Structure to design on (233 residues):
């Protein structure tokens, strides 16, 4: 459990399909963080803030000749205003295919924040006035289009929460992840040391900490040059 005065992150996710987040937010590392009291993740159904009390619609046709439905401004403003009335937020994030591409550096930055809102995009997007006046940061998880931003919100939440102090059993593990130093992680091996004639590199069996660290760094550089040379730029 979190200790008195310990940092606790809160993430509020706004979505029209909350069920999509049930699995990703209730299992593995992200569940451990919540069980330990190190993170609080609240999922809000945007339809509960609809002005349409009968059908709970939160979308409408776009002005002009654009095809597809657009999330309306009023229900989104309602929920964000309510949340902001209860606490201050460091970022109000919109998951959008034209946002900045999510990476480890952004995950590190967000892990230092206390309160985050993530608005999941859906349909053809959201009324642009929301992006102009309510959103502080737009994030994409890649150059492709999803049905909605729920999976992107789960990805962002998972990548950020696992960095919080006390979440991982071995906190040094997060520091050696791929992309933390703009390098891919080196290869890793476990027992048995030999299997079907395939051997673990001798250096890893030597017990020489400095030489192993040098080998791992050299391997990380080599793999990055070969597989992701763009990272070295």
């Amino acid at each position: 459990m979190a200790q008195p005065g310990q940092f606790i992150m809160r993430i509020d996710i706004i979505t029209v399909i909350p069920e999509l987040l049930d699995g990703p937010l209730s299992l593995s590392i992200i569940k451990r963080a919540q069980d330990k009291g190190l993170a609080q993740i609240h999922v809000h159904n945007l339809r509960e803030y609809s002005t349409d009390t009968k059908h709970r619609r939160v979308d409408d046709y776009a002005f002009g000749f654009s095809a597809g439905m657009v999330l309306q401004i009023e229900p989104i403003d309602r929920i964000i205003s309510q949340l902001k009335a209860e606490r201050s937020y460091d970022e109000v994030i919109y998951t959008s295919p034209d946002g900045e591409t999510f990476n480890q550096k952004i995950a590190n930055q967000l892990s230092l924040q206390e309160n985050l809102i993530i608005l999941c995009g859906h349909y053809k997007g959201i009324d642009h006035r929301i992006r102009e006046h309510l959103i502080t940061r737009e994030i994409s998880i890649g150059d492709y289009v999803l049905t909605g931003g729920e999976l992107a919100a789960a990805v962002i939440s998972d990548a950020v929460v696992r960095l919080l102090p006390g979440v991982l059993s071995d906190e040094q593990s997060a520091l050696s992840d791929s992309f933390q130093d703009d390098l891919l992680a080196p290869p890793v091996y476990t027992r048995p040391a030999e299997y079907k004639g395939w051997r673990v590199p001798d250096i890893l069996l030597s017990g020489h900490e400095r030489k192993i660290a040098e080998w791992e760094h050299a391997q990380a550089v080599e793999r990055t040059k070969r597989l992701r040379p763009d990272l070295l730029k």
Notes: Residues 191 and 197 are 13 Å apart (CA to CA).
